Amino acid sequence: MKKFIKIADAGLLRLFFIMVIAFAFMIILVPNTSLFLKWSNFQSMMFQLPEIGILSIAVMFAMLLGGIDLSVVGIANLSGILCSIVILNTYNHIGVVSILLGCIAALAVGLGCGFLNGLIISRLGVPAMLATLGTMQMFSGIGIAITKGSAVIGLPGEYGRIGTLMILGIPLIMWIFIIVALITTILLQKRRIGWEIYLLGTSEKSARFTGIRRVKVTLQTFMISGLLSSIAGIILTSRSMSAKADYGSSYILQCLLIAILGGISPFGGFGKVVGVVISIMTLQILSSGFNMLRFSSYQKTFIWGLVLIFAIIINYYADQRKLKKKI
Amino acid sequence: MKKNKFKNEIFLILTIIVLALLIGIRNPVFFTTANFVSIIRNLIINGIMAFAIMLGIIIGGIDVSFPAIAVVSMYITNRYAESVNYSGSPVWLFVIAMSIGLLLGMINGFLITKFKLPAFIVTLGTSSIFYGLLISTLGGKQVNRLVLPLETIAKAELFRVTSGTSTSAMPVTVLFLIAVMFIVYLLLNRTMTGRMIYAIGGDKVSARKAGFPVDRITILVYGFIGLVSGLAGICHSIQSRMCIPTDLMGGEMIIIAMVVLGGTKISGGKGTVLGTFLGVFLITMVRSSLILVGIPSVWQEFLTGVIIVAGTGISAYQVLRDSRKLVPVMEEEN
Prior knowledge:
The complex is a heterodimer. By secondary structure, chain A is mostly helical. Chain A is built from 14 helices and 2 strands; from the N terminus they run H-H-H-H-H-H-H-E-E-H-H-H-H-H-H-H. Chain B has helices spanning 7-26, 33-58, 66-83, 90-115, 119-138, 148-155, 174-190, 192-202, 204-209, 214-240, 252-261, 273-293, 300-325, 328-333, and strands at 157-163, 166-171. The relative contact order of chain B is 0.18.
């Protein structure tokens, strides 16, 4: 057990180093260093980070079970759309309360979508990647059908406050992200469900012999993932003040990249929320640095790909060394 | 065991017939030859890629970089042809496109075998590398006019059918679809390499222990996927008569879904050419018939999702049910 902790910590330490290097790299590279180190730059990072951060944690949950969830962005958009529609239809009658109602609707949609994912995966035995590929199309398809493919606009200004409000100098959405990270950490490290997820992800067979109910745990995992996606959906809509079925279509690649970089094993059973958080911060630092260097989105896409491949290769060599040490 | 061999194919054919009847009753235009030709025309590019991707899935890896490879090959070839005002034989343009594809595919294969990682993750990375590099170096300008040799192929048609008010022409590119289908069929069923691909996908460790050159075959498969994607890319530019670098991108998931719907096992080891063709046909048929039935096209995405979930769900459930029937001792073996 002690050895296990050591190894996990070595991975986290490595991640932390990568983040520091990325930070140093950007300080050197960005021509106007004071601009990069300004508090306002960090604040804008904190505005950009939460939605993709929460989505990455959602992706992480599916990955811990050894599957890939492709539907998170679809769920986020669908809950954003329904949230907006509820608000638009009730705002004239009940005012600000409608925002609360909209958010509840969004979370309910997230839970429902996650439940459907879990049901298809556990009851029908469809591999997670395939099931969520289908539901991704279904969720964004419903979104397209409801909105006729255009954006839902005209949301009340109060709703936009979710995305702009600052508490103690830190954006509200960043607080939401911190709370989400804390709660998921507790769930995974201190609660029964966490153990069950890790065990089921490591070995389905041993999990069965331990008496873990596969169907129940899978359902719970995907419902958590769906709920988190809908929180990201609320943030996404409030930041852009509109909802559309195809927002953030490039997010899925970035989420997977963040999870892998964060040390989540694509084979399941390994990885921690802390790793994901560090990895998001690293990517956010790189991303805003590249923005200041005026990189195009395609250049960024190229770099994300390189980072992903490098992360994989580094992990591979680290694992090799670990194996050699054991022998 | 023998009895179940074509179970999935028969199920697919029945589904296609039932859906076709339903669509046809709503709108008789569906049963015209012109409509059939237009469905075939719509499935050519996806079909070409689907057969290659099937090989990847059979060997146990999901390649998502093939649209990027297709676009890179298509775009570089067309930009090159445009810049030198190419007027030689079109064969060389195909060779260029397919070589680029082969090279990129082998890079995938190398990374996958060398670092023993899921193909899905690796190709997700290389896909952004290939595409990001292409657009950031060459820019995203579209090529509006193909060079003459390609334009000639684009104008040529095998035959043209007229039913009522609508006419449909069968493009020459369909020959490439047939060729790829035939080659993949021969490769899988008539060569040792094909049997090894099934064996590796079924159980990699055993295949390695049996002395199969697992890495070499894997690189070969990903190289082949790249090569065929290059072909699909140039065929796409021929069929659309222009070359837009944002085309094809994002189509990877639906093509993978077509292959899996065709009975190819997502974890590897199983899959047939006929099944894949039926999967491609089914989804293309439904997607292109929505307007005929009067369903607004905004529902297209949703219905595709439903078909994927239903199709994969039914076959997965059968597997699950069958495995429950086995005695517990057997269960431990897998």
